[in-house]
């Protein structure tokens, strides 16, 4: 590609995601998805240092553990990064305080609709609020409550997912939300796909699966190898066997553990019918099946019985690459797509 043509493509990309870049303070409007056990200081700093915007996954951390993770990240990067907090965490207020005291610039609220009081406390403390919007009506409510940016995540994503694809969410939400930047997420692994959403009005994109299998990720080598081997159809959501015992949908690679989970549900339902277990006991047994399973997969490398959370974009993970190389690939793919569009319109 001729340098002047490439420069024109890059200039257009910069214009398309200028709002996202300005909001995040990063070179590229590319957020790292917050993945428990994976999105820690090393990966987060690597994403930010490469021009993206890393996000720490607080998950079940207590305030002291989060404070240490933030400090560890700040020691590895001078670039902006954020912290993802789960709204249902019993110590949410304390976690917010830790972030504000550490001068974290952006707090991402996930796992439920945050209260206006939490959003107000974050903004009063000097940080910016990002929230997940699973539907248009909730997007409008979050903006009214003070959210300064939204993430719309499709069911193609890994981990805990909603029921609607990004393709549909984008059509439902992007044409109607203009007050705040909206970042798209779920199933994204190529820059040309990201450009298509930028042209629809998105301000940037969030990716998790591509980054989870990076060189800088602390995930076990067997975990990364499973991503390289995996196909899109291998990343499936957890199955609910009986509607009386709800199962929160989680997308991950099918393995012996997911098959055992089905057998476990069947056994629990049988015990409930026999009167061996009460309804509450049966529900708890199902919910506790995966306790510690994500850590077993990510840290210990048990990819057969652990929970290998991955999005459907796992089929596009062809090798374990450095973060900087992944981001460069995404940006160059985006520029190439823009250049093709520019050349078509000039004919």
From TrEMBL:
Keyword annotations from UniProtKB, A to Z: Flavoprotein, FMN, Monooxygenase, Oxidoreductase
InterPro entries: Aldolase_TIM, NMO
Any GO MF annotation of the entry: nitronate monooxygenase activity
Keyword match Flavoprotein: yes
Protein name: Nitronate monooxygenase
Organism for this UniProt entry: Ameyamaea chiangmaiensis
């Amino acid at each position: 590609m001729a340098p002047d043509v490439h420069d024109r493509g890059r200039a257009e990309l910069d214009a398309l995601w200028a709002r996202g870049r300005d909001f995040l303070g990063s070179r590229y409007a590319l957020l790292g998805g917050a993945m428990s056990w994976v999105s820690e200081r090393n990966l987060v700093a690597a994403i930010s240092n490469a021009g993206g915007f890393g996000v720490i996954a607080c998950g079940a951390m207590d305030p002291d553990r989060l404070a240490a993770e933030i400090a560890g990240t700040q020691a590895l990067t001078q670039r902006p990064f954020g912290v993802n907090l789960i709204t249902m965490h019993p110590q949410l207020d304390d976690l917010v305080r830790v972030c504000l005291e550490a001068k974290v610039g952006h707090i991402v609220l996930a796992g439920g609709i945050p209260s206006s009081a939490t959003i107000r406390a974050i903004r009063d403390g000097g940080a910016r609020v990002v929230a997940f919007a699973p539907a248009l009506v909730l997007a409008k409510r979050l903006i009214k409550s003070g959210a300064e940016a939204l993430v719309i995540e499709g069911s193609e994503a890994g981990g805990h997912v909603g029921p609607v694809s990004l393709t549909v969410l984008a059509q439902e939400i992007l044409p109607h939300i203009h007050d705040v930047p909206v970042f798209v997420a779920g199933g994204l692994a190529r820059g040309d796909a990201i450009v298509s959403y930028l042209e629809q009005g998105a301000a940037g994109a969030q990716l998790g699966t591509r980054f989870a299998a990076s060189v800088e990720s602390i995930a076990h080598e067997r975990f990364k190898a499973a991503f390289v081997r995996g196909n899109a159809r291998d990343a499936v959501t957890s199955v609910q066997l009986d509607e009386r015992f709800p199962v929160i949908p989680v997308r991950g690679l099918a393995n012996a553990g997911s098959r055992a989970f089905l057998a476990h549900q069947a056994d629990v339902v049988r015990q409930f019918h026999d009167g061996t277990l009460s309804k509450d006991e049966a529900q708890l047994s199902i919910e506790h099946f995966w306790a510690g399973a994500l850590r077993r997969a990510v840290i210990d490398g048990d990819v057969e019985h652990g929970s290998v959370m991955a999005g459907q974009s796992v089929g596009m993970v062809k090798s374990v690459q450095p973060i900087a190389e992944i981001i460069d690939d995404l940006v160059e793919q985006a520029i190439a797509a823009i250049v093709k569009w520019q050349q078509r319109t000039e004919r």
